């Protein structure tokens, strides 16, 4: 199968994940780039950041139009992750390839577990996009959001993952967001962290195969729109469970590859 066809198929899957779940796209993008398209782990994480940044920004626009983005909370997450994302992005170029693969497998496993655990959804009903926690909960929630955002920024920079698989369950379980609001807000965080990480990877980006990345990103962007529509029709719990099973399979394969 040609690289172009593989890139188109992988891009569609990444876009569907980001549009429907607000995360998980980069956890698919990196192994696809490594095992299907022949990228090294370091190049794959950089390419993933490019693809996920473009796709997340597109999906963010679609969710913002529907009122699903809580900008203040998302800005807090994103701001706390900017410096960790940039620092970890600079560090990634100096790590062994096998170490990156093993670390990515561990993160993919964590993503799957978090998606399986994040089953609490509030009853349907739209809330204003800027609704915030009650005053008594605002400060503790803000501290948790900032701490989680810093950790996600580091993961984004190091492994090329957007971190939405951690943002979404955190917003749902800690800040009591509805699933649609959590997904939309997560996309703001992913876009910001990915761009911050790319700022430290200029040298790596210059040597990438754009004949693969361009069609990959294009189909991912189109897939994000379909994913957003899919999320409106299929229960979030069912989507997360199906995606978690796929992630566990990918993580297991990558871990075996890193250790052999």
Give your account of this protein's structure.
The protein has 260 residues and is mainly α. The protein contains 11 helices and no strands. The chain is globular. InterPro entries: TM_pro_TauE-like, TSUP/Inactive_protease-like.
Structural class: mainly alpha
Terminal-residue CA separation: 26 Å
Q: Please state the oligomeric state of the protein chains shown.
A: single chain
Radius of gyration: 17 Å
Number of helices: 11
Order of helices and strands: HHHHHHHHHHH
Low-confidence stretches: 120-133
Gross morphology: globular
**Beta-strand residue percentage:** under 5%
Tell me about the biggest sheet? none
- Return the average pLDDT rounded to an integer: 78
* Proportion in helices: over 70%
For the secondary structure, the number of strands is 0
Region (Disordered): 123-143
Keywords: Cell membrane, Membrane, Transmembrane, Transmembrane helix
Organism: Streptomyces hesseae
Transmembrane segments: 39-62, 74-93, 99-118, 145-168, 208-225, 237-256
């Amino acid at each position: 199968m040609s690289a172009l066809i593989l890139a188109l198929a992988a891009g569609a899957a990444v876009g569907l994940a980001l549009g429907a779940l607000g995360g998980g796209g980069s956890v698919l993008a990196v192994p696809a780039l490594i095992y299907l398209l022949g990228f090294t782990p370091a190049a794959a994480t950089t390419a993933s950041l490019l693809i996920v940044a473009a796709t997340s920004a597109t999906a963010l626009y679609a969710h913002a139009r529907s009122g699903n983005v809580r900008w203040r909370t998302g800005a807090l997450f994103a701001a706390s992750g900017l410096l960790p994302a940039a620092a970890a992005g600079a560090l990634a170029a100096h790590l062994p390839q096998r170490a990156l693969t093993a670390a990515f497998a561990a993160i993919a496993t964590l993503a799957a577990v978090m998606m399986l655990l994040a089953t609490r959804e509030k009853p349907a009903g739209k809330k204003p996009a800027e609704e915030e926690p009650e005053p008594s909960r605002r400060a503790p929630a803000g501290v948790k959001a900032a701490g989680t955002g810093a950790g996600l920024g580091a993961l984004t920079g190091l492994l090329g993952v957007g971190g939405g698989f951690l943002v979404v369950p955190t917003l749902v379980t800690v800040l009591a967001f509805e699933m649609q609001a959590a997904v939309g807000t997560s996309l703001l965080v992913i876009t910001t962290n990915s761009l911050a990480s790319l700022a430290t990877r200029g040298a790596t980006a210059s040597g990438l195969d754009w004949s693969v990345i361009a069609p990959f990103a294009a189909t991912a962007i189109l897939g994000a729109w379909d994913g957003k529509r899919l999320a409106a029709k299929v229960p979030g719990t069912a989507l997360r469970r199906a995606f978690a099973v796929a992630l566990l399979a990918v993580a297991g394969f990558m871990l075996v590859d890193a250790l052999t």
